[in-house]
Amino acid sequence: MSEIFEPSTHSQGRNPSNLTALKVPPHSVEAEQAVLGGLMIDNSEWDTVADAVLSVDFYRSEHQLIFQTMTQQSEARSPIDVVTLVEALDSLKELENAGGLDYLSELAGNARGTANIHAYTDIIRERAILRRLISVANNIADTGYNTGGKKAAEILNGAEQQVFNIRDERPKDQGPVPINPLLSKAVDRVDELAGLDGSLTGLASGYQDLDEMTSGWQKSDLVIVAGRPSMGKTAFAMNLVENAVLTGEQPVLVFSLEMPS
Asked: What integer best gives the mean pLDDT of the chain?
């Protein structure tokens, strides 16, 4: 990984002795610089990086601005390099806020390619999650000290929701998937079905006519049993469950909204 270097517009007026007394939020300037510089010299990894992190995941404001501008360029199908970034940032009058031409040039010049860009992206994402957790924890603590008349149960529900939101607002871990592995799995499944005896390819329901129409219950199936009240829907569903347990030797979990607990 390349050395950490400072943008010229942000390198003045710092007192290291004052900074040592502060708790600095988790971050990795080195990883952020490696990702941004790598993308400038090789755009082929853009989709992978963009699927994993957002601009707000970068700790430094100039890095957030650079990545946000990269996102806009990608959406406009424009190449991403030092020249195009300088033009885009200058047109937005944000070039100096992004560190200036010298800093952008250093990002690209110090990059070591994109061989390890996935690992660096993971570091950025992990540190961003930790910072978000710290922020949420501080909010929860403040609410605990200043309840504003809220009951403990209400505060607890709000705290849980804030933590859950961290997970929900994250980009999905799995982005676009190459088609070759999917095709291999599909071909393997076709070969498996071709070698079966009979037409049953899933879990038997216990009703021959139904199995002939459905070929059995398939993985990820959503089956809705509808009918008027007292027509035997629950009994029918329980028969399906019983058959899955007895003949299919499959564990079954049953929930009923009519159960009191």
From this structure: 86
- Please state the domain count of the chain: 2
- Residue 231 covered by a domain: yes
Dist. CA 79–CA 42, nearest whole Å = 10
Q: Write the burial class of residue 133 (CB in 10 Å: 0-12 exposed, 13-18 middle, 19+ buried).
A: middle
Nearest to 79 by CA among 31, 128, 129, 44: 44
CA 23 vs. chain centroid, Å, equals: 27
Range with lowest mean pLDDT among 7-21, 91-105, 130-144, 219-233? 7-21
CA distance 39 to 70: 9
Give the rounded distance of the alpha carbon of 19 from its chain centre.
Answer: 33
Q: Are 66 and 98 in contact (CB under 8 A)?
A: yes
The answer to whether 71 and 141 are in contact (CB under 8 A) is no
Q: What is the pLDDT of residue 143?
A: 94
Confidence band, pLDDT 50/70/90 cuts, at residue 186: confident
Q: Under 8 Å CB-to-CB from 41, ≥6 apart: which residues? A: 81, 108, 111, 113, 114
CA dihedral sign of residues 85, 87, 91, 95? positive
Domain end, chosen from 117, 152, 168, is at: 168
pTM for the model: 0.63
